[in-house]
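Lecture notes, continued. The same structure-token format from the folding unit now serves as the input rather than the output. Read the line below as a description of shape only.
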């Protein structure tokens, strides 16, 4: 760029004014103006313009610094060779954020044109929305390369992660236990609500507004749906749910009265008591089975409902056989009938199935035993399963009920083929199956007169399933 060389020119005439040359030497990093020939005493103005990535530093003459001013002026008095000095520019890059949402790196001082590696490691509970400069989005990516062209402030924008997910612990050993539900994220919460719903009854069994985790005491096996609803400080909401199956053994105690010597007119009153140790997972497996629960689909699936090969049904049948070891087949069957009659009669509309929206709900024997109630088909299919597990021959009977001679509704009962029975029967393929009313009132303090062969008045057998 330039060194000012002033070459003196002396005219022989007395009126000639001396002239001097200003020469600018080339210098990397910029350009200059002002090189040329000047009269003695005139003002010389030099102006430097730096290129991208450089800044003007100073003017030198023969290695000696003249000035740091730009533009630079002086009086032409001699030839001059002047060199402008440009140095590589460096700029400050600072980082800021709208919230403490992560660990960032990349701020510092960089040479002009350098690429700064910017990265952010976002903290749990936050989302990264992007890098911004002067309000404009640079990139939404957490790792970028940024070209430094001047002093810059880059702002990181974070948001709250709207995720109500949670973890559940404390249930692996089964009930009784304390279930602990803990939020995965706990950032920007203004309100949270925990809800626990029983999946069998579809009823809410617990609800609480809490600042933190949920602790729920479980005395017995259950199937639960845990819901976590969160409201955030930015006005957004999020909900997460998880189904939890907690196993556990529950003892179901059945007590009933029965008699030995049926039909003889001379019988002994007896009391029966059986404790069934049932697991919740066994019961819930039947609750969630895909068998049709009503209508023609259920009627066509009767064989699926009579679960005589189920291990728990088979064990109950063995206990009943041991209890009646000194009885005839008819007396044993009648004792088993009294056992089934002792189970509470309850309409479907008042049972667990109705809570799930089913006005008609056929139950597996496992469900009837666990819930300790059921309606006509539930009792009849439980009795049928027990008879078959004892190796007796039975059928399920279609029955019509009448009141004052008018049809009042359909009914289900059981028929059994057993030697020595008397009363009402229905013949199938040459075999007589004696009517068994499984829903007659009975209990630990009552012996029902509805023995094998008894049928209520105005009940009519219409066929078999």
């Amino acid at each position: 760029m330039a060194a000012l060389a002033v070459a003196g020119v002396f005219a022989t005439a007395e009126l000639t004014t001396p002239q001097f040359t200003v020469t600018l030497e080339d210098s990397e990093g910029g350009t200059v103006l002002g090189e040329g020939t000047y009269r003695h005493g005139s003002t010389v103005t030099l102006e430097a313009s730096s290129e991208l990535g450089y800044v003007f530093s100073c003017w030198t003459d023969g290695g000696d610094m003249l000035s740091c001013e730009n533009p630079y002026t002086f009086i032409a008095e001699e030839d001059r060779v002047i060199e402008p000095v440009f140095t590589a520019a460096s700029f400050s890059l600072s980082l800021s954020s709208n919230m403490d949402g992560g660990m960032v790196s990349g701020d510092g001082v960089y040479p002009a044109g350098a690429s700064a590696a910017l990265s952010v490691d976002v903290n749990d509970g936050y989302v990264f929305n992007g890098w911004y400069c002067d309000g404009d989005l640079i990139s939404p990516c957490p790792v970028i390369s940024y070209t430094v062209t001047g002093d810059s402030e880059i702002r990181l924008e974070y948001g709250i992660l709207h995720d109500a997910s949670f973890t559940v612990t404390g249930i692996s050993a089964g009930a009784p236990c304390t279930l602990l539900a803990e939020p995965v994220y706990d950032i920007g919460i203004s309100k949270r609500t925990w809800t626990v719903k029983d999946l069998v009854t579809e009823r809410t069994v617990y609800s609480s507004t809490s600042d933190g985790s949920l602790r729920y005491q479980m005395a017995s096996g259950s199937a639960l749906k845990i819901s976590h609803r969160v409201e955030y400080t930015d006005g957004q909401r999020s909900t997460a749910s998880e189904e939890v199956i907690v196993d556990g053994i529950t003892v179901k105690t059945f007590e009933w009265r029965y008699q030995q010597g049926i039909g003889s007119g001379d019988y002994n009153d007896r009391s029966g008591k059986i404790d069934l140790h049932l697991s919740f997972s066994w019961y819930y497996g039947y609750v969630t089975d895909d068998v049709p629960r009503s209508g023609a689909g259920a009627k066509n699936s009767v064989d699926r409902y009579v679960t005589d090969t189920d291990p728990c049904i088979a064990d109950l049948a063995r206990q009943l056989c041991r209890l009646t070891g000194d009885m005839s087949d008819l007396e044993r069957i009648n004792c088993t009938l009294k056992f089934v009659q002792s189970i509470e009669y309850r309409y479907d509309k008042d049972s667990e199935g109705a809570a799930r929206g089913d006005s008609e709900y056929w139950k597996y024997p496992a469900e009837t035993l666990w819930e300790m109630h059921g309606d006509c088909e539930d009792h009849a299919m439980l009795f049928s399963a027990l008879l078959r597990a004892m190796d007796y021959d039975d059928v399920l009977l279609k029955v019509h009920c009448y009141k004052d001679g008018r049809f009042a509704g359909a009914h289900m009962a059981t028929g059994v083929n057993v030697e020595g029975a008397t009363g009402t029967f229905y013949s199938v393929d040459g075999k007589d199956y004696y009517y068994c009313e499984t829903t007659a009132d009975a209990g630990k303090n009552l012996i029902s007169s509805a023995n094998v062969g008894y049928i209520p008045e105005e009940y009519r057998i219409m066929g078999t399933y």
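Point for the exam: The CA atoms of residues 97 and 156 lie 4 Å apart.
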